[in-house]
Amino acid sequence: MLLRPAVRHSLARLRHIRAVPPPRAGGPAAAVFQEVRRDFGLLAPPVVLHAPQPPVLAAAWTMLRETLVATGSAPREQKEAVAAAVSFANACPYCVEVHGATLLGMRGGRDAAAISRGRFEAVTDPALRSAALWAAGRAGPDGLDGGADRGPHESAELTGVAVTFHYLNRVVNVFLDSSPIPPRTPAAVRATALRLLGRALGESARAHREPGRSLDLLPAAALPDDLGWARAVPTVAGAFARAAAAIGEAGERVVPAPVRALLEKELADWDGRAPGLDGARRIEDAVAGLPRVERAAARVALSTALASYRVEESSVAPLRAAGFGDGDMVALIAWSAFTAARRAGTLLARGAGTVSAPAPAPGSRSGPAPTLGSMPAPGLGSAPAPRSTPAPAPRSTPAPGSRSGSAPAPGSGSTPGSTPRPGSGSAPSPGSTPRSASAPAPGSRSRSGSTPAPALGSGSAPTPGSTPRPGSGSAPSPGSASAPAPGSRSGSGSGSTPNSGSASDDRRGR
């Protein structure tokens, strides 16, 4: 009974897009909704928010289902630990709460409580501890195997969970509220609600789920080389091959070619570390040479990949004005998030022993990293910072995922009387003129009157009511981050660790 109100709350507070009501979901979307209900017992908001783009909806579900949900070699408890640890590193309080609560519901005890609070070093179970530390980018020289004897199947499954959550964390940070529990819920009521939520999710997680049942939702596709870590488990490989094809096709339809080239260039040599103290300026420099609408699309794409909490209404408004519909917004965010998640997977797979690590690129960044455990993270009872969620701009309602009523596809001519869609123009020059970047503080989701976030390198913004975060100014190792309080957006950014989504202070301003 508790789960359905939580779902209704989350979908009612979607940002930038409107939820597709289940009765109106037809064809491919209806098939995905049916599978999600079958395996989860409810329509999980991080999945169903993709409904305006049905192929991307199927891709998101297939990745989640065949890695986290399907029964395999890796125990579900370790998968939930990886999901929670990646979500901590990506500063995604919604996912931290859900998967921390699920782990507590499955096993309880001090180890589950430590993971739900981001205190991974305190976990006594060697296999659980090594999985969480690896996922958070803080594994020792033995990587994922530290203290546990893992085979290739288990490693591939856990890497798949990590990559899936590098993707979902970014999407959730952009579109969903900070918590499945309504804001302003009293702390005692909130803690009780999360315990009951965890108990229900934990019971569902113990059930056997046959692998491969979601693969028919999408046509078979070749597995890209950078996802080769998945080959040990055919169902995981099949899920990521299909997802890469579906999300890639959506990106080609919606994301202008110069924007795709720009993000891929930014991530190609990225080693999972923060770029330094000029991150905000670098984004503005990178997009400055693009035409107006392409510049807006590039800013949203780079922010999604590197600091997803910074995708605000002011960033989305120019795209809406140019004709981006709900399906277009889902495609843009999904493509950007998945591109970053793929790079994160390559970095994490090296620590899982599923790929060999090439020599670092000349001039690659290195240095000590702050650890997630460098500041205590409050537990699941913390209340999120309240925020307002205005309705998206009015629009005509095309069929889910369709482009009717929106501006022409990238590279095509403009519709009479409309702003030309992105797709033309040249890639930015490295020396283009910097532009100022102003974004609401990560601790706030308010669309108006929010406190400006500090520019990258301007110092550490403390979590409301807490002392400033340690480690400010140092570059995080892949996946490492000082964790925010679950439910708080303050002082963290998704998208800078191998998890390409570290909550590092150095990302602030992105």
Write a structural description:
The longest helix has 27 residues, at 326-352. This protein is an all-alpha fold and 510 residues long. It is 45% helix and 0% strand. It has 16 helices and no strands.
Secondary-structure blueprint:
Elements: H1 3-12, H2 27-40, H3 45-48, H4 54-69, H5 76-89, H6 93-107, H7 109-116, H8 126-135, H9 152-175, H10 187-205, H11 234-254, H12 257-268, H13 279-287, H14 292-306, H15 313-321, H16 326-352
The largest sheet is: none
Strand content: under 5%
Shape: globular
Rg, please?
Answer: 21 Å
Q: What is the tally of beta strands?
A: 0
Secondary structure class reads mainly alpha
Distance between the termini: 40 Å
**Stretches with pLDDT under 50, minimum 5 residues:** 355-510
Question: What's the mean pLDDT score?
Answer: 74
Tally of separate helices: 16
User: Helical percent range?
Assistant: 40-55%
The string of secondary-structure elements, in order, is HHHHHHHHHHHHHHHH
Summed up:
With 510 residues, the chain is mostly helical. It is built from 16 helices and no strands.
What would the keywords be for this entry?
510 residues, mainly alpha, 16 helices, 45% helix, 0% strand, globular, disordered C terminus
